[in-house]
Specification:
alpha/beta, Rossmann fold, 7-stranded parallel beta sheet, 6 helices, binds NADP nicotinamide-adenine-dinucleotide phosphate
Amino acid sequence: MSQTILITGANRGIGLEFVRQYLGSGARIIACCREPDRADALMALAEAHPSELDLVALDLAKPSQLTGLKAYLGDLKLDLLISNAGVYGPKGVPLSALDGEDFAPVMAVNVLAPLLLVQNLTDNLAKGAKVALLSSKMGSITDNGSGGSYLYRASKSALNAIGRSLSIDLAELGISVALLHPGWVQTDMGGPNALITPQTSVMGMRHLLAQLDLTGSGRFYNYDGTEIPW
Ligand SMILES: NC(=O)c1ccc[n+]([C@@H]2O[C@H](COP(=O)([O-])OP(=O)(O)OC[C@H]3O[C@@H](n4cnc5c(N)ncnc54)[C@H](OP(=O)(O)O)[C@@H]3O)[C@@H](O)[C@H]2O)c1
């Protein structure tokens, strides 16, 4: 039976590649993005796959919009929920120039939004469903050897804490949760010098998610399936 999958930040980068690859495997996709009318690549895919791909407007900086998403889904059951949308915040800002005003918007999208997304959609998760939270190795405290990137690092560390708690709280529903580092990926966020393509990253994460079960839930994985220290 084909999978039903919801993906946030589906209009570009890693999210769009998740949509492409899962469509190729015959899945039904609910693709969420801020402005579906302006998401040209997604709209083209929806025209080619009218009964497999739904586009839904969702700005994760506006938690009230989760009510609309929930109403849209009704009692539809999801096999996989991919919380992919994320922001980096201001880049290359030294400690001396940090502006506290920049903290809340990054936390809202990278930390609070994934938590509220899972909270709101728990009833829509099928027994045995999987939740993928796109984190980053930059959220690993062990791996931090270069400093800086305060907001992004803090947001992904906080997301990791949330993912671990979700894995414990959702285990009784048979739902497994994975924190995923997609690699350093050639997207708008990763930039042109990044090491891998979205295709390679998503292929690896799809393989990992296909294997994920409760025994591997609540762990922090690289896209190639190896574990990353917190
Ligand atoms: N690329 C990398 O090397 C890398 C490395 C580690 C982790 N990651 C993580 O992987 C995920 C995807 O990254 P990416 O490289 O694909 O980034 P990207 O190319 O910058 O795309 C980010 C996506 O998030 C969406 N988004 C941002 N704010 C949003 C909001 N308020 N509401 C809804 N959607 C929002 C964007 O939508 P708009 O087009 O509307 O802005 C876009 O679809 C992120 O969580 C990122 O932190 C990426």
